Hints:
The first copy, chain A, is mainly β.
Amino acid sequence: xxxxxxxxxxxxxxxxxxxxxxxxxxxxxxxxxxxxxxxxxxxxxxxxxxxxxxxxxxxxxxxxxxxxxxxxxxxxxxxxxxxxxxxxxxxxxxxxxxxxxxxxxxxxxxxxxxxxxxxxxxxxxxxxxx
Amino acid sequence: xxxxxxxxxxxxxxxxxxxxxxxxxxxxxxxxxxxxxxxxxxxxxxxxxxxxxxxxxxxxxxxxxxxxxxxxxxxxxxxxxxxxxxxxxxxxxxxxxxxxxxxxxxxxxxxxxxxxxxxxxxxxxxxxxx
Lengths: 130, 130
């Protein structure tokens, strides 16, 4: 018996020199692009195991589950990979807002500085500075 | 007379150590995420000047106008920037397909290897290898 060459097999993601790939989170229903963050092999593994979006924080240098502090978790419906296998797309069901500023999307400004995105929560109510 | 503090001013994009930021191209009508590529200060400037998407190729180490070879240009309706100003979102009107494989989107596969995206052209008809 030979292996089935047509069977779907996991794509070999190219994590590159720094061990990270950029991942775009998109609202699975509305199509809104919510954020861009970075993903390590472990972050991808945890995302697939748990169905909740995990990333790797470059500034804090640690694995990070989206929404652990804010409650604004992302349930991941599907993970896609691009043609070069060096970028990911998370199709998510976003609880609350993706952005720490209180906006639904981190991409809530034009490059000209105009705010175009919806604000859905007050960060003071969500992030405890005390 | 004082400057108007409320006036929209261009966001100061953080191009980071390597002088590049990731940019997501999204179909302005359908909301489909088409591709992720990198943008240099010059690529952003050209994009805003011409209204056509420019990127910076890390592999070829050069400025790159999307669609120059294939004809599959992206007319940019809006450029957005994320909360940390280190990622961009191009809202585009995509001619043909964004992906060199002939698919509408570079994100046409799940990480499990299943093809889920639409193929809209035959690369052999578009890219001249001769």
